Amino acid sequence: MNLRLLVLGITIIGCLLLGCADKKEEVQSKPISTTRPNIILFVADDHGTDALGAYGNNVIKTPNLDQLAREGVRFNNAYCTTASCAASRSVILTGLFGHATGSYGHVHDYHHFSTYDKVKSLPVLLEKEGYATARIGKYHVAPESVYHFQEELKANPRNTVEMAEQCKGVLNSEKPLFLYFCTDDPHRAASTNPGQWDAPNSFGNKVEGYAGVETITYKPEEVVVPDFLPDTKESREEIAQYYQSVSRIDQGFGKLMQMLKESGKADNTIVIYISDNGMAFPGAKTTLYEPGMKLPCIIKDPNSKLKNTTSDAMISWVDLTPTILDMAKVDIKEKSFHGRSFKDVLNVKEPEGWDQIYASHTFHEITMYYPMRVVRDKNYKFIRNIAWRSEYPFASDLWAASTWQEVYRNNKEFYGKRKVQDYLFRPEFELFDLEKDPDEMLNLANDPNYKGVMDEMIKKMKDFQIKTRDPWLITWDHDSSLQGTGINL
């Protein structure tokens, strides 16, 4: 009897051990990449919503990005916080406004803006969670210790097909992957000299083209001229060049998606397409008018309930880092970021509580000091131009642009719908009702009928500056320009 019990006990223990071993083996053999999604953040340079088929442009050819929109969610109200390359990218990768991190403008040596060492960026946080992190193309943030990626891939950032091909190795990573894919297109190129203002390659386009890329050209007479630009020969020629550069992006994006599918990981990879700021034309890039800050954002999340749909939720690039961390199943502390996760928005057709954003711009280049702060609340948009007594400064490439030079050299009164004088010399306060005035032409700031709206917007702006430790908060108390206006502080 005792022997039988002993044999039975050994058998039971053996079965239990075998079961545990099988369970342990199952856990070990399960690829890490299936527990957390791969994430590709694809960032174009100076690409507005004006030049994408998915956003209503029927002329430009962007079939691969349009396909992404059919497979995911296209956001109609996605905003950068500052319409400047380096400053915007610092926000994208930290979830913090640049005025709070020292990322006030360009990071080139002669500008030397740099993020504080204590900041923990998205790639660093993801690496800590077991992600393989890699970047390719435009970087434009500093210091490297803050924005550290485990792997830097090399390719011509104007040739997105070549860039995609260089990503083959990381796409096969055994760990969950975060790939930061950043093009130089459609940024202007070699165009800071007004003497070359009609150069045909101002958007990186070359007569000989790029290896592996089909050169897609556009006729100036067929392009769509946005309302804020003058409809001139020069504008149309430059927009045609801009379109050509965007089509190059689309081909590289398509190549990357093809390679992702071939890797077998497409069903577990979140793909995000955005731009750092609006098109590189005066009135868009470097401004916080809508063409400068309202940008494309298309997200394909295989686990999202919504497909081939649009979202009117108002989101901001300061929300990207907490959102991506949330998607990666990382526990995030809301107080660590100025933004918040919009992951759940991808599952709700009409989300509530997503009708307000803030923006903060201080510099583009070091010579371009013109701090602006913005509150967008539902249909109202409030801009404070802190250095309003100064002439609005030009980015060097925008000053050289033939679109601007044609107006400047001919001493024209209007630039698009705006008077040149009004573009260069702005009031301290601008208030627009975007539902009635999408072109931001009618400033309501001094209209007595909108005094209550102004008071509320100023309060929101000051609260935002206090919350985000904005050094420019002090200018409210040091500026006597409000005296006699009737505006309450």
Automatic annotation (TrEMBL):
Entry's Gene Ontology molecular function annotations: arylsulfatase activity; metal ion binding
Domain named Sulfatase N-terminal: residues: 37-329
SUPFAM superfamilies: Alkaline phosphatase-like
Keywords noted in UniProt: Calcium, Hydrolase, Metal-binding
Pfam family, one: Sulfatase
UniProt superkingdom: Bacteria
Alphabetized InterPro entries for the sequence: Alkaline_phosphatase_core_sf, Sulfatase, Sulfatase_CS, Sulfatase_N
Keyword Transcription regulation: no
PANTHER family: ARYLSULFATASE FAMILY MEMBER, ENDO-4-O-SULFATASE
Family that this chain belongs to: Belongs to the sulfatase family.
Protein name: N-sulfoglucosamine sulfohydrolase
Source organism of this protein record: Arenibacter palladensis
Taxonomic placement: Bacteria, Pseudomonadati, Bacteroidota, Flavobacteriia, Flavobacteriales
